[in-house]
Amino acid sequence: MISIITPCFNEEDVLNAFYDEIQKVMKKFDFELIFVDDGSQDRTLHILQELGNKDQRVRYLSFSRNFGKEAAMLAGLTYARGEAAVIMDSDLQHPPSMIPKMIEAYQEGYDQVIAKRNRKDEKWTRSFTAKLYYKLINHFVDHITLTDGVGDFRLLSRRAIDALLALSEYNRFSKGLFSWIGFKEHLLEYENVDRALGQSKWTFFKLLNYGIDGIISFNNRPLRVAIYMGLFTMSIDLLYVLYILIKTIVHGVDVPGYVTIISAVLLLGGIQMLFLGVIGEYIGRIYYEAKKRPHYVIAEDNVSGQIKKQQQK
Ligand code: UDP
Ligand code: MG
Fold first, then answer.
1. If you write DSSP's letter for every residue of 16-70 in order, what string do you get?
2. Pocket of ligand 1, candidates 4, 5, 6, 9: which has the most ligand atoms within 8 Å of its Cβ, to mutate?
3. Which residues make Cβ contacts (< 8 Å) with residue 181, sequence separation at least 6?
4. InterPro entries this protein is in (predicted)?
5. 117, 151 in Cβ contact below 8 A?
6. C-alpha–C-alpha distance, residues 238 and 257, integer Å
């Protein structure tokens, strides 16, 4: 059996179409469809209840509030019963027609079958920043490689799922975690599709924060950069002090120096603030990890038998 996991946040417009599509492409397979309602405020949950009543392969979990897509994917994986799971968006931007091809590759022995989106027809600014970002992050981050155009749309074998579930960190940067667990990977490409209906939840700042998350989640190199930068400014400083000293000895005291002083103060202040921020980021993460809060709270579901069992464990 294959589990298809799909997080949904305010997706009332597309859910039925999504269900129909899955139904169509999965005719030949045994599957369960797990919807994770990430605290939607529209009729998403209502539609899921209807689907669940109509089709017993449809299972849903509904969070008590919006916990984010990462939490939703984690919940889906936790309750998946299949021998493999496909994670995909519910807005039909991840074409369901890819699933049979992914299953085929899985049967050939791949543990992760990754669907890669080409960036055709995308605004060049978006694809350009993406390219730059991946260059940067792969340079900065250890142990994992991130690929442009690769998102969360993928099939995971049971052992890959279990490996992911064993990572209990609170700050989940899935793109990185998928790469971190390793296993044999297979890439399949698909054409970029525009969102069918509804709106994307990504704003510029969300993307920026996501980008920073990616860098901070997987290494402490930014802290290392702070050390190098400190050493660098210190040596410049020492040279400059030496220069001033000699100048004063040779030419006597030279009072005007406002520009040098103010620029040194501002520059150093700026660098210090920047790295205080970097250190703060790490401490903030430690703080969240230390609390060991659950990733999500489930308000309603049609899989409670299984949830109770899991909680008793
Ligand atoms: N999503 C979610 N929680 C959120 C934001 C998004 O579960 O807080 C789901 C959303 O319903 C969709 C998927 O994550 O199925 C991708 O979201 P979106 O389409 O907004 O992102 P984009 O495709 O623009 O990257
Ligand atoms: Mg989308």
1. HHHHHHHHHHTTTS-EEEEEEE-S-SSTHHHHHHHHHHH-TTEEEEEESS---HH
2. 9
3. 160, 163, 164, 167
4. Glyco_trans_2-like, Glycosyltransferase_2, Nucleotide-diphossugar_trans
5. yes
6. 17
Predicted ipTM of the assembly: 0.91
pLDDT tens per residue across span 133-190: 888 777 777 777 777 777 788 999 999 999 999 988 888 888 888 888 888 888 888 8
Provide the residues around ligand 2 (an ion) whose CB is within 5 A.
89, 91, 93, 195
143 vs 80, 177, 186, 218, CA distance in Å? Answer: 28, 11, 19, 8
Q: 36 C-alpha vs ligand 1 centroid, how far in Å?
A: 11
DSSP one-letter code for 13:
T
- Going from the Cα of 9 to the center of ligand 1, the distance in angstroms, rounded, reads 6
Q: Is the pTM of this model over 0.80?
A: no
Q: Are strands 150-157 and 58-63 parallel, antiparallel or unpaired?
A: unpaired
Position 195: which residue type?
A: R
